[in-house]
Amino acid sequence: MAEILRQDQALEAACRLLDAGELVAIPTETVYGLAADATNGEAVARIFEAKGRPRFNPLIAHVADRQMAEGIAVFPPLAARLAEAFWPGPLTLVLPHRQGSGIHPLVTAGLDTIALRYPRGFGRDVIARLGRPLAAPSANISGRVSGTTAEAVNAALGNRIPLIVDGGPTPVGLESTILKVTDEGLTLLRPGGIAAEEIEGVVQVPLSRGAKGIEAPGMLASHYAPHARMRLNVAEVMPGEALLAFGPARAKGAETAAEVMNLSPSGDLREAAANLFSHLSRLDAGGAVTIAVEPVPLTGLGEAINDRLMRAAAPRDSQDEEH
């Protein structure tokens, strides 16, 4: 079983394991990540093995600063503006991969682009101490609900990895927003912890949507899924269903639900984002066959919440589940 150490006691142990090619689950501001040295092919392969993740799906390389990032990718002017505004933070940029960066090809899944993020907190500290970027998808079983606490990570992966760093509940609770940046503009590949409207307001460039194929993590149809089936945007709860609620007003029949978890009783989207995965996991653990989900607005962070809910509710094919 994994050792669990508080983040204020874990830096040296985490670096020692990562340097040896082992996996470490680390807290970030978004969700917990399953980290490995991004320059070590055997270490990266262990991520796929631990998660059961399809190898055609790329990983995000996490960096400690802009200098490390610019040694890995080419930054068009627009990418530099985005990094200045939102790094460190929950924004991933998909950029042209710089030749000779040292990143192992398993990280990029054979693409000529690379996904980069500069996290806050312990993630940044461990990368800076290690001196190499980390590949770090969410610390969960492929296709299942992302872990936002050390306890959730331990339940999913504790028998597969040597160390979990406990940084408490993650403050954002959703994965990073992913943008592909080219000279022509910006494409939103995955909504996430920074709302599209906030990005557009800062850089004054509209985001396009509609990526071609799998260009970044989190783009498969079935994703973030609990074991229970899900019904979205319900106006009525069927007897015995679990209910994932939102806001102060309840759907008809809510009193018949087997269990109720409210993403945000006040209707606050930031609170809802932070609670999404932990509440889904709690309802799923209750054993209900179906989870009914009340409507969540599509504005702001609601776009990312609805994206995760739609993928969690999508028809499932074992070949399509990843994280």
Explain the overall architecture.
- It contains ten helices and 15 strands.
- The protein has helices spanning 11-19, 41-51, 66-70, 77-86, 105-108, 121-130, 150-157, 196-203, 269-285, 302-313; strands spanning 3-6, 24-26, 33-37, 60-62, 91-96, 113-117, 134-135, 163-166, 177-182, 185-190, 207-209, 229-231, 242-245, 259-262, 290-293.
- It has an eleven-stranded mixed sheet with strand order 1-8-2-3-7-4-6-5-9-10-11, with helices on both faces.
- α1 (11-19) crosses α6 (121-130).
- The longest helix has 17 residues, at 269-285.
- The protein starts with a strand and ends in a 10-residue tail after the last helix.
- Mean pLDDT is 90; it is low at 318-323.
Distance between the termini: 22 Å
As a percent range, the share of strand residues is 15-25%
Q: Quick one: biggest sheet?
A: 11 strands, mixed
The CATH topology of the largest domain = DHBP synthase
Structural class: alpha/beta
Give the overall shape. Answer: globular
User: Can you identify the CATH class of the largest domain?
Assistant: Alpha Beta
Domain unit count = 2
Give the radius of gyration. Answer: 19 Å
Number of helices: 10
Mean pLDDT across all residues, rounded?
90
Low-confidence stretches: 318-323
Total beta strands: 15
**Second-tier CATH architecture of the largest domain:** Alpha-Beta Complex
Strand order of the largest sheet: 1-8-2-3-7-4-6-5-9-10-11
Q: What's the CATH H-level homologous superfamily of the largest domain?
A: DHBP synthase
Order of helices and strands: EHEEHEHHEHEHEHEEEHEEEEHEH
Q: What percent of the residues sit in helical stretches (DSSP H or I)?
A: 25-40%
Subcellular location: Cytoplasm
Function: Required for the formation of a threonylcarbamoyl group on adenosine at position 37 (t(6)A37) in tRNAs that read codons beginning with adenine.
GO molecular function: L-threonylcarbamoyladenylate synthase
Pfam family, one: Sua5_yciO_yrdC
